[in-house]
Each structure stands twice: as C-alpha cells, then as structure tokens.
Design goal:
The radius of gyration is 16 Å and the shape is globular. It contains seven helices and ten strands. Strands 1, 2, 3, 4, 5, 6, 7, 8, 9 and 10 form a ten-stranded mixed β-sheet that branches. α6 links the parallel β9 and β10. With 206 residues, the protein is of the alpha/beta class. Helix content is 33%, strand content 20%.
Length: 206
C-alpha cells in the first residue's frame, strides 16, 4: 500500500505547524517537516522565520501512529536533534534526510539507531534503506530501477510534481498514477487529502 507524506505538514495554507501535525496524526497521514535551529530546534522552511518548537512536535508524534520525514535544513541541529529524538523514543517513528553536500557528514555524526534517508535526484548507488526521490536533474523513474532497489530491501518515496514545478491538479494526478505504477512505496505531496481520496478510488490506502 502507498504511504502518504504531507509536504511540510501543510494545513490551512500554513506550513510546518503543530496544528498541521495534529491534523494529519488524526487522519493517519505521515508528515514531512523542515527543521532549523536558533535557541532551539524549530519547524521552518525559511531561515528568517521562527517556527513552532520541535520538542512540542515530538509530544504529538510520540502519541501518534504516523511517521515523520525530518528535512534537516541546517547541519548545526544534528546533535541536539538526535538528543531530542532519543529522549522521546522517536527513533523508529522518524527518519532524517538532507539535500546538500553535507549529507555524508550527517551519516558520520548521527547515531546508527536513527534512520537516514538518501536524497536521490538521479540514479546512483545507495546503501540506505530509505530513498527520498525526485527527478529534479532529469528523468530516471523506471519500474525496473525501482523494483531493483526494492529487491535490495529499499523503501522509495517519490515527490509529487508540484513540489518541483508549478503544475495543475490534472497533471499532479497523472503523476500520482505514474508513481504508483512504478511501484513507489510512498508519495510526498502538497495535497495529501486529495491523494488519500485518489488512492482509495484506485484501491490503494495509506
């Protein structure tokens, strides 16, 4: 069955909020969150913003049955983030990923009991269990490639097209169909409730 991830836990046109996490926890929809740090680790995509506390988010996550994909926007949060996850026993409910050159540093500086997803925008070798995928650098999604990774025990999460470019709902649903056909284990989208309804109609559920 296809997992759903709400991109930035978007809810009521707001991103990375406690209200969004609460809403999707009730709907049994996973969330993707952006993390930064000032005085504490907080939720925000932009560096100039001061968002909700990640510690408060953990209170919701640890009492839920959803998974959180944690997008590390600043490497300086890593040691404190690990401490927070361990204090809240969230190692198995969360996984981390980065999309810049500091990814290898993340591998070296995080505990092995916390899963790190590999961000892949073109086909390459990967040792990680979870692969966070898009086609930002060109088309590479093929059923043979996806199934090849899965035969090695990998879990692949595909990005919905609106996360990369401005597209209409018809094109988004067309891409959802393509991602499901390719065999992706999950989809991250700005339209999680619409995706849930679409998957139910297609015979897929979160």
């Amino acid at each position: 069955m296809t997992k759903i991830f709400s991109h930035r836990a978007i809810f009521n046109s707001k991103e990375n909020t406690l209200d969004g996490i609460k809403f999707y926890a009730k709907k049994m929809i996973n969330v993707e969150l952006d993390l930064r740090k000032n005085d504490e680790v907080y939720l925000s995509h932009e560096q100039s913003e001061k968002g909700d506390s990640f510690k408060d988010a953990c209170e919701i996550l640890k009492n839920s049955n959803i998974q959180a994909a944690l997008h590390i926007k600043e490497f300086k949060i890593v040691s404190e983030l690990q401490k927070i996850l361990e204090e809240n026993s969230l190692e198995e409910k969360c996984f981390l990923f980065m999309d810049d050159v500091k990814y290898e540093l993340l591998q070296k500086n995080i505990s092995k009991n916390i899963e790190i997803a590999f961000y892949m925008n073109k086909k390459k070798h990967c040792e990680n269990k979870i692969i966070w995928c898009d086609e930002l650098k060109g088309k590479w999604f093929e059923k043979e490639i996806i199934s090849g990774f899965q035969k090695k025990g990998k879990e692949l999460i595909g990005m919905s097209p609106e996360l990369i470019s401005s597209v209409g709902m018809n094109q988004i649903k067309k891409e959802w169909k393509y991602l499901v056909k390719m065999g992706f284990d999950g989809i991250c989208t700005n339209h999680p409730m619409e995706l849930k309804k679409w998957l139910e109609l297609e015979g897929q559920v979160n």
